[in-house]
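Think of the structure tokens as a kind of shorthand, similar to the way a musician reads notation: each symbol stands for something richer, in this case the local conformation of the backbone. In the example below we present two proteins back to back. Begin with the first one, reading the sequence and then the tokens, and try to describe in your own words what changes along the chain.
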Amino acid sequence: MSRLKGYVFQKIGNQQEAEEIFQDVLVSATDCLSFYKGESSFFTWVCGIANHKIVDFYRKKKIKTILFSHFPFLENLATEALLPDEKMEKEELRKEVKKILASLTEGYQEILRLKYVEELTIKQIAKKLKTSFKSIESRLFRARQAFKRNWLARE
């Protein structure tokens, strides 16, 4: 078993992905055991199954890369559809961020909202708040520091 796992890891390089492929190989080998005729060693036969799984892995990875590079919105859809736990974690994180933001002064809340929610540049924020670029830079730095302090204090 560890020899097969090492073989898969050598081809993949990522421990988590290799573990997943290794599990797929074991399931496939179990399902296809009746087809093993003894014409090669059992390890060689299972490595053949592993090779097919590895090729499938890289093929799917390439397809995802090409597809997501041309249609980036699909990655978000796929993530939401395939990972409901991740969606729940994002929602919990969003609530935590809102809670931390609420703990900041109104001025810090506003500048962080303008920068990260409305995605305004520092120049645009300065114009909107009728103040200098440098003043906004300083306030944004202090707001980030305050957010960071409060974030770390919650743990």
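Once you have a description of the first chain, move to the second and do the same.
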Amino acid sequence: MIPRVVIFTVDHLEYSSLVLKPLLEKHGDTVIKIYVSKSLFDWRFLRKRFWFFIKNGYPFCIRFGDLIRYIRWRVQNSSLHGYRNMVDYLRAAGYETEYISEIQSEFSLAQIRDLRADIILFALFDKIAPQAFLNIPKIGVFNIHLGMLPEYRGGLSSFWVLRFGESVAGATMHEAVARIDSGDIIAEIRFPIRANSMKGLMDETVEKTGLMIVEGIDRLIDGNPQPIPTNNRPERYFLIPTHNDFIEFYRRGNRLI
């Protein structure tokens, strides 16, 4: 039986298109719908941490050269392959696609239930799913985390592994559960760090993650995912760097872009 797969991603052409490409090439016939979140940031999240940003001197804790390189990168990547957003890009490829702003209302849950999905994949998605959502698909909801788990739960894993001087980076596909970045690990990648920029490491991570997703979906389709044990791994959670984290990050010879 061919499973029914629903994908949730973010409106970031450079990374979302790259991370989904291998899956769509191999299992595109299983994808019945793709939802795209318009924003990469939750403004409520930013407002909640307003004083944290003030206390840590944002954005002045970031070196001027990184800020200039970031602006240049955003301008250069304002479009990709002639498309300005993921919805147009995916629709042109033949996939039923629409924007979604939230996944917690009864209206949204009802729409998603009507799809009768076997697998729901969060591929670089930025919304938190309630338990009612996690119960919808027959096989499960699976999240793509651009970092090693459980060592780097949270976000900005490419920053944190460079900040702590790790020799290895990675990404993880795991079952989504109520606790963020937890649940059984279905597939993972780990590779030596060669970059000294967060952007360079993210680029390599995203490219390798696309192939990891195919491996994980293959295991789910075969009905034998065999979760990867994590008993001997440390569990840590990192999210927003402090001023001191940036000092250590730069002291190690790293840069953001």
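Compare your description with these statements about the second chain. The two ends are 45 Å apart (CA to CA).
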